[in-house]
Amino acid sequence: MGRRTAQLFDLMFKSIIKDASHPAIVHLINGIYNKNYPLNTTSVKIEPTEFIKEYPKSGKLEKIVTDIVITLSSNGIKDTYLMEAQIDDDIEMSLRVFNYSLFFALENKTVSNGSFMQIDMPAPVVIYWETSKTKDIVSVKIRFPNKKSILYKIPTFKVLQHSVPELGNMALLLPFYILKIREELEKKGTDSEKRKRLSKELEGYIIEIGKVLNSCKRNNYITEVDAAMLLRRLLNMNRELYGGYKEFTEVDVRLEKLVETGIDEAIDKAVAKAVAKTKKQSLKEGLVQGAAAMKAGGEAIDKIMLYTGLSRREIMGL
After folding, report:
1. Of 137, 160, 183, which residue is a domain's last?
2. Average pLDDT estimate for 25-48
3. Once rounded to an integer, what is the mean pLDDT over residues 36-61?
4. Helices H, strands E: what count in the chain?
5. Same domain, 202 and 88
6. pLDDT, tens digit (0-9, with 9 covering 90-100), for 71-100
7. Which domain holds residue 22?
8. Are residues 101 and 20 part of one domain?
9. Does 77 lie in the same domain as 13?
10. Helices assigned H by DSSP within 87-223
11. Residue 247 has pLDDT above 80, yes or no
12. Is residue 208 a contact partner of residue 250, using CB atoms and an 8 Å limit?
């Protein structure tokens, strides 16, 4: 996969986390790390992911950037999770993740009595979007001068080794399932008939994703706005990867309909919720929440203005 596309998927992952609701983020952490945080955990913080490293001898500065760092606080306990996303196998990934974790821990060190320092390493995971030959756990062996050593273990999570229903346990990863057919599609000798077959296969996955998202909404794992946002990201990824193939036109049309339906459902739910909450301000609240859903789903500002009657300034402020 080209570097541009790999960078696009990194940015897409970061934008999904940024736009996701707290329950959806907690649901992702629970699924990937096999945790059991309450979905109503209110203290969910997306941490800074850029650190500046200075080389003492030369004074040279280097920017260290990781993908996602999230801190959850529940019942007085604070836990931090570092998620690094990859497309291709990389023998040095474990060392880089250790480096990212260490920099985060050093930025948040605690000092007691002026003589004791503690650093808390975040729990890491490497997420592979495509099939990977990397083992389920990779390690960095850290040796000390007394010859003692410890293993810093990093689990990996391979998205395409799971089915769509299995990814319902971490719904924010579902848009990346669109990569399922990419390698076969780009093989040499792939003719139009094979592309048609692969487009039908992808269409089947998209139907499954829609069903799983609806199930996640019913179980309150994600919100209506989350679902609309994820479908919009899925549509954008489809156009980036497969927009150049005429055989995939029907897939694009189906996704467009799913996105429109998702946004309409988010608006209807927001309006209904606002009406139930208060009659006096119900319509205004419903329109604002509906506009937020459309904006999260990637709709144009002019279209949101037309649907809701809100001003450009009001919409931009959401």
Report:
1. 160
2. 91
3. 76
4. 10, 10
5. no
6. 998 777 889 999 998 888 877 888 889 988
7. 3-160
8. yes
9. yes
10. 93-107, 182-185, 192-218
11. yes
12. no
